[in-house]
Structures are given as C-alpha cells and as structure tokens.
C-alpha cells in the first residue's frame, strides 16, 4: 500500500513538471521587443542575412535597394582590403543585456550591451572565450523597436547599418 502511494506521488510530481515545462515553453515563445532586439543584434554581428526579417518597412529590402546586402558587402570589402576572409569579420556575442529607456504602446527604445569576440566559426569563439585568447570588445547601442503589423521590428539607425 505504501509502495503504491510513493509511485502515485512520483507520477504526480512528474506530470506536474511536464505541465510546468509546457507553460514555460509557451511563455518563452512570445515575441517581445527585447527578444527581437537581441536576435537582430546576433544576426547583425554574425553577418546573417536573416537580420532583414527583423527590420521595419523603412529599412527592409525593397526595389530601391537592400540595406542588409549593402552592409554585408561593405564588411566583405573591408575584410578584403585588410587581406582577411569575411569570416574574420563575424563576431559572437556574450553577456547580452537589454535595458528599456522609453516605452509606448507602439514603440520602445532599448539600450543593448554585450561582449563581442571574433567568431571565425562557432567553436573558435567558444574556445577563445573560455581560454581568454581573443580580445573582448564591449558593444553598446540604442535600438528603437516599433510595432508594425502586429509584430515588433527594429527601426531607426541600429549600429552602423546605415
């Protein structure tokens, strides 16, 4: 009888844990301005073209030009001038923090700060961070995130994109 009670208690604890995990997963999936700013910043410093998906309509790629491709091409040209591969221009961010400066229903201004290290490939960044091989640079900027068509989008002049 006591054995059945222990199994029942253990089963209840496991089911409760699964229930909590499901709730946390749905809460984590919610799109917030801070998450969008962090995701954009990571894409920006890894020279990932997916950053275009986080930009507002005024900055998004259009017939007039593609600001993201222009930025990536500028970085590739910079690397070539220095005799480097474009991979040397990629960075990985650590210790990312966001702080809300101002907020309205449709616009939020965030201060984002992080530690940046060269990331020729993901393993290089991790090893250089662990063994303190690379130079860590501090990244700080203010990012404006607006609500556009029900989604949060990065707008303004993030970093040196423009």
How does this model look, in words?
By secondary structure, the chain is of the alpha+beta class. The chain folds into two domains: 1-29; 31-155, Nuclear Transport Factor 2, Chain: A (Roll). Helices cover 40% and strands 26% of the residues. The chain is built from four helices and four strands. The chain has helices at 2-29, 33-45, 67-81, 122-130, and strands spanning 91-103, 107-118, 137-148, 151-155. Strands 1-2-3-4 form a four-stranded antiparallel β-sheet. A hairpin with a 3-residue loop joins strand 1 (91-103) and strand 2. The protein is extended, with a radius of gyration of 21 Å. The mean pLDDT is 84.
In short:
By secondary structure, this protein is α+β, with helices and mostly antiparallel strands.
CATH architecture of the largest domain: Roll
Q: Indicate the CATH class of the largest domain.
A: Alpha Beta
- The fraction of residues in strands falls at 25-35%
CATH topology of the largest domain: Nuclear Transport Factor 2, Chain: A
Q: Output the structural class.
A: alpha+beta
Strand order across the biggest sheet?
A: 1-2-3-4
How many helix segments? Answer: 4
Q: Number of folding domains?
A: 2
Q: What is the alpha-carbon Rg in Å?
A: 21 Å
